[in-house]
């Protein structure tokens, strides 16, 4: 008779293990192919649909791309710590469905927010082109170009000394159009949207589980950790809309994770 042995808590279930392996392989491939002049990020990262680099498949492929080792490490560490518990509770199929829906939902939510921001930026560009002035350019740069190069401020100052100079008008127009193009061509990479969905799910399924923070090193219940993390992401997303960190993608992963769990749980008192 074969003796039954329950799975070890430290064991890595198949979906989490394969997701970690795939993400690691993609980062290694990105590094390796770059030496041959092949930029995987340009092909597989998620670009805004109005960008010339955009392809529909990027909504999936960007989830397996990362900006560097530390970006990959923290995402995969969270997937290992929290994802394996969810997979053991839900099973591989349901966990994989949850992972991809939250990742795709995060990308969709981020794209929507990006659309709203870029629509506002287009309106500002159109207003500048209609009535170009150094004062308007100064305001535009402060709002849309963080840490601008010194030559940008030299252009503004020189233009103020000669407000009717057509050369400065042309340079200012080219600059605002270049900023719009740059914003449209910012790539998004990482599994963070799905990872934040996993964090949300863990907080909902195991709300009173004690987690130990690293900074500061204090215990906190999972439900408070998730709520606090979500509020921080919302604050940072609103406070720093031009940030290179896709805060609204993180928030989108949590929102879609919450909706999906509520949908699964609509006729039951348990999540599994």
Automatic annotation (TrEMBL):
One of its GO terms (molecular function) is serine-type endopeptidase activity. It holds the Pfam family Rhomboid. It is a multi-pass membrane protein. GO terms for biological process: proteolysis. Residues 54-114, 175-261 form the Peptidase S54 rhomboid domain. The keyword Membrane applies. It is found in: Membrane. Gene3D superfamilies: Rhomboid-like (1.20.1540.10). Its main location: membrane. It comes from the Bacteria. InterPro entries: Peptidase_S54_rhomboid_dom, Rhomboid-like_sf, Rhomboid_protease_S54. One of its GO terms (cellular component) is membrane. Keywords: Hydrolase, Membrane, Protease, Transmembrane, Transmembrane helix. The keyword Mitochondrion does not apply. The chain crosses the membrane at residues 20-38, 59-83, 95-113, 186-206, 218-238, 245-264. Belongs to the peptidase S54 family. This is Rhomboid family intramembrane serine protease.
């Amino acid at each position: 008779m074969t003796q039954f042995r329950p799975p070890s808590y430290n064991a890595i279930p198949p979906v989490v293990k394969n997701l970690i392996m795939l993400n690691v392989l993609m980062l290694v491939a990105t590094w390796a192919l770059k030496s041959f002049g092949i930029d995987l990020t340009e092909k597989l990262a998620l670009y805004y649909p109005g960008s010339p680099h955009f392809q529909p498949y990027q909504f999936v492929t960007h989830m397996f791309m990362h900006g560097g080792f530390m970006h990959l490490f923290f995402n995969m560490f969270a997937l290992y710590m929290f994802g394996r518990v969810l997979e053991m509770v839900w099973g591989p199929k349901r966990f994989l469905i949850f992972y991809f829906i939250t990742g795709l939902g995060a990308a969709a939510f981020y794209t929507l927010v990006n659309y709203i921001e870029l629509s506002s930026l287009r309106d500002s560009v159109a207003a500048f082109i209609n009535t170009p002035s150094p004062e308007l350019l100064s305001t535009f740069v402060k709002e849309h170009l963080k840490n601008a190069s010194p030559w940008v401020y030299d252009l503004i100052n020189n233009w103020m000394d000669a407000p009717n100079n057509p050369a400065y008008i042309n340079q200012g127009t080219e600059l605002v159009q270049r900023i719009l193009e740059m914003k449209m061509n910012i790539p998004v990479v990482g599994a963070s949207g799905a990872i934040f969905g996993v964090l949300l799910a863990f907080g909902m399924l195991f709300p009173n589980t004690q987690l130990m923070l690293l900074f500061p090193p204090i215990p906190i219940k999972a439900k408070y950790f998730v709520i606090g993390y979500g509020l921080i992401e919302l604050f940072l997303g609103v406070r720093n809309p031009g940030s290179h960190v896709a805060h609204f993608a993180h928030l989108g992963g949590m929102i879609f994770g919450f909706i999906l769990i509520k949908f699964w749980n609509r006729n039951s008192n348990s999540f599994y």
